[in-house]
Amino acid sequence: NYRCRSAFKLLEIDDKHQILRPGLSVIDCGAAPGAWSQVAVQRVNATGADSNAPVGFVLGVDLLRIPPLEGAVLLSNADITDPSTLRKIEKLLPTDKADLILSDMAPNATGIRDLDHEKLIHLCLSLLDLSQSILRLGGTLLCKFWDGRESHLLQKRLMENFRVVRSIKPHASRKDSSEMYYLAKLYREEEKPQKG
Ligand code: SAM
User: What is the pLDDT of residues 39-52, one digit of tens each?
Assistant: First the structure.
């Protein structure tokens, strides 16, 4: 049983794009109440339920309180844009850097569509800045945004930092919402030098 229907969006995206697998180290930003973290714990084998597969790691971070979840390390009451949160994340990560950053973060919506759109784009941009410290070379970022006139700015910044960037509209998202996701792969991985 998942804590929230949002789980189905991540399941759908992962079924199609295979971003979660046993052994990966994942940071889930905007994790409360914890449905995405539940999916991540299962799929990276964070509890070691599958004794034949590598054991992964999940760190959930949110402004709000995230109720305890077996297999996940949780950082509640933490603002991802606050530098002290970065230091806490670095301390909690068992590996030097994470393989995958998930973000289903959303600011409190005012209902003014353009304003909400801009706020979320800026939140995604600060997450991209943070990636420099916590995402490994070749790593993956999945982030939610509300589509609008500044989406291309975020897309451009992602394309400067990742080799592959695609936008995704999950079927599990409400049809009338502007909610979408960017999936960015191969963080700052250099092109293979050409021979000859
Ligand atoms: N993926 C979650 C799940 O499946 O349970 C649902 C996430 S909910 C749509 C968005 C979350 O983003 C909220 O819990 C909110 O508190 C969090 N959030 C918004 N701004 C944040 C920030 N600056 N730092 C950390 N979390 C933030």
Answer: 999 999 999 999 99
% pLDDT > 90, the chain? 94
Residue 195 maps to a domain: no
Which two three-digit tokens encode residue 165? 């960037």
CA of 62 to the centre of ligand 1 (A): 6
Q: What H or E segment, with its residue span, contains residue 61?
A: strand 57-61
Domain count along the chain = 1
Q: Ligand 1: list residues with CB < 6 Å.
A: 3-4, 6-7, 30-36, 61-64, 79-81, 104-107, 123
Whole-number pLDDT of residue 175 = 83
**Is the ipTM reported for this complex over the cut 0.90?**
yes
Question: Exposure pattern of 28-63 as b/e (b: 16+ CB <10 Å)?
Answer: bbbbbbbbbbbbbbbbbbbeeeeeeeeebbbbbbbb
Mean pLDDT of the chain: 96
Which CA distances in Å does 79 have to 29, 63, 76, 186?
9, 5, 9, 26
State the catalytic residue, choosing from 144, 175, 192, 195: 144
Total-model pTM: 0.96
- Is 192 a member of any domain? no
